[in-house]
Structures are given as structure tokens and as C-alpha cells.
Amino acid sequence: MNDGRLFETEYIEELSDSETSISLYADFDSVGKRIDAFIAENTELTRSAAARLIESGAVALVGCEGKPISKNYKLREGDALTLRLPEPEPCEALPENIPIDVIYEDDDIIVVNKPEGMVVHPAVGNSTGTLVNALLYHCGERLSGIGGVIRPGIVHRIDKDTGGLLVVAKNDPAHLFLSEEIKHHRVERVYHAIVKGNFKDDFGTVDAPIGRHPVDRKRMAVIRSSEYKSREAITHWRVLERFGAFTHIECKLETGRTHQIRVHMSSIGHPLVGDTVYGGGASPFEHKHKAYISGQCLFASRLTLTHPRTREQMSFFAPLPDSFENLLRILRATVE
Q: pLDDT category, 328, cuts 50, 70, 90?
């Protein structure tokens, strides 16, 4: 029996080139819960995917290995599970004639203004209509191969519902150079955001490590405990406009963790407008003006980098999208 906590999922061993083993532990809050629902809540699997995994024999109760288990099995406190997860079979992204907003392009890099609502590269549930599909049509075979057939040229990403600037590598040397620049925090990425609440100060820094949420595996969280895996995350912010119950801010990333700005702003009590995952989206104002809010109000507006061939420092800018500007106009009218 465990000590009453729901342990973080652990990738405990590599079984082969195509399978990974995960260990999960049930706490007292999980007693009586169906095993397929429990797995879905604590991994990135859907409930139906968890059920298929159970039915295939890839899920076992520790101490009862080799015995079949039903997806209807009700958990007992202290149950330990092992899951064998096969790696998804790779599928090659295909070119699609999708218009893209090219800010800059040469033989080494292409800088694009990704619209909100577009996924960067194919993944489960989003096999087409991605930025990669559009880039393959626009660039042909002139993209770096380091990211493989699913992520050619992709050196950094932004969320589906976040629009703005991305740099993509058109050859392997450029990809390697840009990856190192990002790793050593030498690429400047600046975002605009509208958040809930009013800040006491005009500027500040959130320095808080981020890792996978210990209970909800589909979210990230500030993780300070050494028990759980987390990585350094630093966000610098400054106030641009105040609207009483809301604030327009600029955020500069020193690191680039998944959902970093969204997690950091939520952790200090200022979730992004429209961000239902991390505490936004529930105010009367957000409900009233949801026509202008599709996901979190976050936009990558400025990108500064060193060119991989010429070593020239280059800065790129993108205007705020109409929906963002319309929301700002509405907020300004409320304080006039």
C-alpha cells in the first residue's frame, strides 16, 4: 500500500525500441474508480484508448502479472499498475495548400506568423491542416530533416490557440544552430497577453520550475517538490495597460517550457483571459465577449535571433490579431 498520495507517473524502463513502461499508483481518493477512467485521468490517454490498452493485455496489476484484467475493474487503495505503451507509428506529414503569413524567408530560415487555432505539427487528432503541412507545400523539400517526417524544420512551438511568430529551419545546419541558441536562451521571444486581475507592480519576474501536473497529466504546473520532475522556467513580465479587473501585459521568455506563460501567470493569481485550463474563461466579461476569445489571449509578437549563416542579429514583429485588438478596445472603453 502507498502512503496516501497519488504518485506521479514514472517512465520506469525502456522495454524496446517501440515500447515504454509506465507505473501508476492508486491512492485512497481512487478507491472504487474504474481502472480505465483512472488511467485516462493520470496519463495523456483518452478513456477509450485506456480501455483498448487494457483489453490488449498491456495493463497489469503488480503482483498479478499474467492475469487478465477487465476495464470494469474497480481500484483498491494501494493498487499499483504497469502500462506498456507502444510508440505511435510514424506517419509522414503531407503538403497541403494552406495559406501562411510569411514574415521573412531566405535559404536558411523562414519566419511565419501562425494564426491562432492552427496546430504546429501533426499529432494524434490533428493529422492535417497544421503549419507543417502548409510549410511542406510552400517550401517543398527545403526544410530541415532533423525533426523527422512529422516535424521537419520545427525548432520551437507555440500552442494551438496562441498565434504569432515562429522561426523554422530550412536545412540541418540552421536547425542545429537555432536549437543551440534556444537552449542557451539567446533567442528572444516576446508575447502580449490579457490576464485577469490588476498587478501591484509594473514589472516583475516569475522564476518557478514547471513540470507535468502530478494528478492531471494533460496539464503543466509549478512543481517545487524534488519528488517530481520539473525544469527551470523563467518569465519576465511588464504591465502595458490596466483595466481594473484585467491587465494587458508583455511577457518575455527566458526559458521555453510547455504552457510556460499560462502556468506562470496562473500561479501568481493572474490567469490568461479565455484560458479555461489554467483558471481563466469564467468571468461575466469573458462570457459576454466570447466572440473575440478563442482560447487563451496570448500572442507571440516579437522574435529576435541570430541568423544561422550570417550571424546577423534580426528582429521580427507581428501585429496583434483583430480579435485581440477588438478585446483591448472594449476594455479601454470600460475604463474611460
A: very high
Q: What is the DSSP letter of 274?
A: T
Checking 223-232 for CB contacts under 8 A at 24+ apart, the result is 227/8, 228/8, 229/8, 231/255, 231/257, 232/207
Count how many residues are written for the chain: 336
Q: Residue 86: pLDDT band by 50, 70, 90 thresholds? A: low
Catalytic residue among 79, 159, 161, 275: 159
Residue 141 backbone dihedrals phi, psi, to 5 degrees = -90, 5
Calpha distance 65→81 (Å, rounded): 10
Reported pTM: 0.74
> What architecture is domain 10-86?
Roll (3.10)
Task: Give the type of residue at 205.
Answer: T
Over its C-alpha atoms, the chain yields an Rg (Å, rounded) of: 22
pLDDT per residue over 168-192, tens digit each? 999 999 999 999 999 899 999 999 9
What does the alpha-carbon distance between residue 280 and residue 270 come to, in Å, rounded to a whole number?
A: 9
Q: What is the CATH number of domain 188-335?
A: 3.30.2350.10
DSSP string, 139-201: HTT-S-STTTTTSTTBS----TT-EEEEEEESSHHHHHHHHHHHHTT-SEEEEEEEEES--SS
Cell digits of residue 323: 480579435
Helix axes 47-55, 35-42, angle to 10 degrees: 120
What class does CATH assign to 101-181? alpha beta
Cα torsion 128, 129, 135, 138: sign: positive
pLDDT the model gives residue 87: 59
H helix intervals, the chain:
35-42, 47-55, 131-139, 172-183, 260-267, 284-288, 322-335
- Residue spans per domain, the chain: 10-86, 101-181, 188-335
| Per-residue cell: 173 | 545546419
159 is annotated as an active-site residue: yes
